[in-house]
Amino acid sequence: MTEFFDIVVIGSGVAGKSIASGLAAEKNKVAIIEEDLWGGTCPNRGCDPKKVMISAVEAQDKVNQLKGKGVKQAVKVNWSDLMAFKKTFTDPVPEQSRKSLDDSGVVTFTGTAQFTSHQAVKIGESIVKANQFIIATGARPFLLDIPGSEHFLTSDDFLSLQDLPDSITFVGGGYISFELATIANAAGADVHIIQHNDTPLKAYDNEFVEEVMKPFKANCGPVHCNTNFDRIETTDGCYRLTDDGDFDLTTDLVFGTTGRIPNADTLNLEQAGVEYDKKGIQVDHNLRSSNPSIFALGDVLSKKEPKLTPVSSFEASYLLDYLTDKTDQPIVYPTIPTIVFTTPKLAQIGVTSAEAENNSQSYDVSTIDTSKWFSYSRSNEPVSKVTVVTEKETGLLVGASCVNNEADQLINYFSFLINRKISAEELSTIMFAYPSIGSDLSSLYN
Fold first, then answer.
1. For residues 417 and 445, is the Cβ–Cβ distance under 8 A?
2. What is the pTM of this model?
3. How far apart are CA 185 and CA 199, in angstroms?
4. Cis omega (within 30 of 0) for bond into 435
5. Nearest alpha-carbon partner for 362 in 327, 416, 335, 398
């Protein structure tokens, strides 16, 4: 059976779902293909459920910081209750996502899509042809190829754990490891992180990473840097991680959290004439692949921009405008904030302090200890620091980083100031509710 469409979208995550619905609203005959959970990674087993679970950590942190400051009762995170709460968010997602697509007039297919030619894909026994394709298949966890690698669990598994064991080990020193370890420890597990070099969270300001590492090591567990274990063995219902030297660690569960790889290698892209590398599908400034009738967006791309949900949404919005002749300009990304949901949280955007210090003729850097500021001392936060980077020629804010419990909110303010090119003088004319994080901005950027 062969069906014909104007446009076929492969992948129903945030980007795919959004652009499919948008194109259908413009009277295109649109189909979308999903091989796993409708709605994609973020709402099913990614940022949304993770943030639900982080909420329990935030509540625990607040109480712990205020013990003896008006609060007496300690807070314990109950894993089974927390997972039940998380499921109230994730369980409805697949059905709601598919229904939303159906209601928008998009034809839905379930199954694995593989290209059979430049303008056709096969899904099971069905062939779907289209004038144009959009690939939005996202990424999946990467696992080390070592003896015993079949024992690795992934972040997907962590966010579905019915029971929390006594000890958990996370392999990899990126944000995924630290966030999941923070959640697990708050719920009572002993955690270990194994990092192959000496720079965990390497994308972030070294000084601020140290501020995260100190309480992590004290409260959560050890971070084994410069460690390259090379096998996993089972022993008495647990897992033993060893190398050829002295490293020897036994743990109840071991999670491979060494990053993610794009879902480009399963699509039979060679048949479609689409070029890709280990980082993903290669596209031009209009998100067009080497096949002029095939576009790609989201985490499946080979790109320098962070592979984050809002970036995928931005690309979907741009591509919708491009395909419906609302723009003929190349995509231009805004300055993108990133965050690590640890205790404390760590966030940054734009020009880093290291980049600024290496180009001191162009930038000014200021780091401020804000732990005594009212916004942070009122909740007895143990650490709060903010770095701002301004451009000497214009005086405009071009970069910022922060480490404190409100970093996720503060970095969004900085994102707005940077992307809207708001000067310190203009900021001084804006009135924020007081006392609040926003009311501190003029003291950080002046």
1. yes
2. 0.95
3. 22
4. yes
5. 398
First to last CA, the chain: 65
The answer to whether 224 and 361 have CB atoms below 8 angstroms apart is no
The residues near 263 (Cβ < 8 Å, ≥ 6 apart) are 11, 137, 138, 139, 140, 300
- Contact present, 226 and 141 (Cβ < 8 Å): no
Q: Of 247, 276, 248, which is closest to residue 263 (Cα–Cα)?
A: 276
The strand pair at 345-350 and 397-404 is best described as: antiparallel
Contact 220, 411 (CB under 8 A): no
89: tokens are: 């968010």
Beta bridge partners of 347: 339, 402
Token pair belonging to 243:
């190398």
- Does 222 sit behind a cis peptide bond, omega within 30 degrees of 0 on the bond before it? no
* Blockwise average pLDDT, block size 10, the chain, 446 residues: 94 97 97 97 96 96 93 90 97 97 97 96 95 98 95 96 96 96 95 94 94 89 91 94 92 96 96 96 98 98 96 98 97 98 97 95 97 96 97 97 97 98 96 95 95
Give buried/exposed letters for 148-159 (b at 16+ CB in 10 A, else e).
beebbbbbbebb
Cα separation, 253 vs 426, in Å, equals 53
Of 388, 323, 387, nearest to 133 (Cα)? 323
**Structure letter (DSSP) for residue 299:** G
Residue ranges of alpha helices (H) inside 187-248 are: 206-219
Backbone CA torsion sign across 319, 324, 326, 327: positive
- Provide the CA 278 distance to its chain's centre, in angstroms: 19
DSSP 8-state secondary structure symbol assigned to residue 233: E
pLDDT score, position 29: 98
- The residues facing 255 across adjacent strands are 153, 170
CB 340 within 8 A of CB 346: yes
CB-side neighbour CA atoms (13 Å) of 99? 5
* Alpha helices per DSSP H over 46-193: 47-66, 79-90, 93-103, 155-158, 175-186
Please tell me the distance from the alpha carbon of residue 141 to that of residue 258, in angstroms, as a whole number: 8
Total residue count of the chain as it appears in this document: 446
Residue 218 has what pLDDT? 86
